[in-house]
Amino acid sequence: INAFKRDEYEKALEENKNQTKYLKKLAFFLNQNNGGKDNTDRARLIDMEDWKDDVSILNDLLNWLGFEKCSFPKILHENLNGYEHDSSEISLGKQ
Prior knowledge:
With 95 residues, the chain is an all-alpha fold. Helices cover 45% and strands 0% of the residues.
């Protein structure tokens, strides 16, 4: 990586860290209705690193959002093995 690209990468990384800090503060603020404890009543943050291989995290989110009898059977990937399209088929139920 040349110096210019490294500098751009460092700037983007710092911006990402700042945005993450902001979102964490916002989620905490939104959840303060329960004594300031982060109980995920009104806001919830999920990290892609946590859910990209664990569909149960997304299904828990669906439940938290109030969806009933709704779940993802698996996670489809648009960058399977780095660049491949996931051609798995999933059923969305009867028509």
